[in-house]
Amino acid sequence: MPDVRLASPQGKWILLTTVLGSSMAMLDSTVVNVALPRIGRDLDADLAALQWTVNAYMLTLAGLILLGGSLGDRYGRRKVFVVGVVWFAAASLLCGLAPNAGVLVAARALQGVGGALLTPGSLALIQASFHPDDRGRAVGLWSGFGGIGAAVGPFVGGWLVDGPGWRWVFLLNVPLALVCAPIAVRHVPESADGRTDHGRFDVLGAVLGALTLALVTYALIEARSGSLVVVVTAVAGLAAGVAFVSVEKRRPDPMMPLGIFASRQFTAVNLVTLCVYAAFGGFFFLAALQLQVVVGWSALAAGTALLPTTALMLLFSARSGALADRIGPRIPLTVGPLLCAAGMLLMLRVGPDASYLADVLPALLVLGTGMVTLVAPLTATVLGSVDTSRAGLASGINNAAARAAGLIAVAALPLVAGMGSEAYRSASAFDSAFGRAMVVCAGVLVVGSVVAFAMVRSLPAGCRRPECRTHGSVLTPPLEGERTRGRLS
């Protein structure tokens, strides 16, 4: 049984290194959006290259995060976490030194591999190290401090872009890793599952899942060309998706056991997740560009402008979870997406010479209120819709689904909104397309609200409740459970 107490020096070191590790990955999910206009200008990159700068990272992270958790279970959580931190830092260094967009995209994909190792590992280390009496508080502190990191990310990113340059958005991870990895090696106890019946890794499932996302993403981003290659890639992506489902259905130890979707409630809440996080991913990708390209703000001003959504999440997510415990998840999961949709429609007022107080802030406050309303109940419903022994697996699948939804949204939304490859270089062209994109995002959120109202029901008494009560990420729901594994628990 883990016996480290939170108040002990070792407990504080464990908390510090896990917060630093998770913050590295969380920061890169938010700060890069603010840097995109400057990256595009310096590297002479078109919109597709900017989409790949975001999506290359999300692609490998979403495709491998379930497998990354299982590696820690088998080979040692501290070992895999440290490997992830070092890998992430090395890839970040390559991003910061990238001479062109192609190298940057490749380095971002490598970053995602490191993120898939350290993201589930940071939570697993806390759950495997702390005494049961302290674990809940440790998880809460880890989640809260990580949320603060997510909150300051756009601000720090904007400051770096306007100051020493966009490359420091990536290079900043190197000194963080130089602090994080040695602390982990010295102060974090090693832990593993300890079982002998692990079974085989579902490497084929992981490869097919990542390949499906990669092919579909490529087809959506490059669809403007209308070439035969795009058509062939799209068909290949669908074929890979069918093969993934077939493999997962037949394997005795699948990465994503399809039987878990026999729960109607679990299926429903994951459909809601796909809708809301697709909208969030598309919004935060385009909003940072809109504020700089169209409104004319600096990267620092644009990053700072987006802080209210994360601040609201940090301040009120725990209270929202408590309210959902009393009234059930159906109402919050129905009302929350509608509030978010209203916030995105209010962003239609944000154009040239927009006022922050009159135009931007009201939209972000409404959007943030909607996010507060829905995120905690969504997590609770994921955990409450499956057996307690599968809570970690359910949370991992839900987290991966949210990342995949954001990935597809960043690839598809510019296409659906009619953005050309050079749209971000023209304020008028981008402004028109941004308005269409916000309407699309609002429509997707309304679909999520309808799904929640029609399919989500009350949670059974005594079901598993989230440990992460405070959450600050605007792009993914929190990870939960004792482990996030790449196989059936």
TrEMBL record:
The portions of this protein that span the membrane are 12-36, 48-68, 80-99, 105-126, 138-160, 166-189, 201-221, 227-247, 268-289, 295-318, 330-348, 360-383, 404-421, 433-456
The cellular location(s) given in this protein's UniProt record come to: Cell membrane
- At the top level, the lineage of the source is Bacteria
Single biological process term from Gene Ontology: response to antibiotic
Assigned keywords, A-Z: Antibiotic resistance, Cell membrane, Membrane, Transmembrane, Transmembrane helix, Transport
Q: Where does the secretion signal sit in this chain?
A: none
Q: Tell me the ranges covered by the Major facilitator superfamily (MFS) profile domain, including all copies.
A: 14-460
Q: Name one Pfam family in it.
A: MFS_1
Molecular-function GO terms, alphabetical:
transmembrane transporter activity
Instruction: Report the SUPFAM superfamilies cross-referenced here.
Output: MFS general substrate transporter (SSF103473)
Q: Does the keyword Membrane apply?
A: yes
Task: Identify the InterPro entries for this entry.
Answer: EmrB-like (IPR004638), MFS (IPR011701), MFS_dom (IPR020846), MFS_trans_sf (IPR036259)
* Broad class of the protein's primary localization: membrane
Q: Does the keyword Transport apply?
A: yes
Q: Tell me which Gene3D superfamilies the record gives.
A: MFS general substrate transporter like domains (1.20.1250.20), Multidrug resistance protein D (1.20.1720.10)
Q: How does it sit in the membrane?
A: Multi-pass membrane protein
Give the GO cellular component terms, alphabetically. Answer: plasma membrane
This protein is called what? Answer: MFS transporter
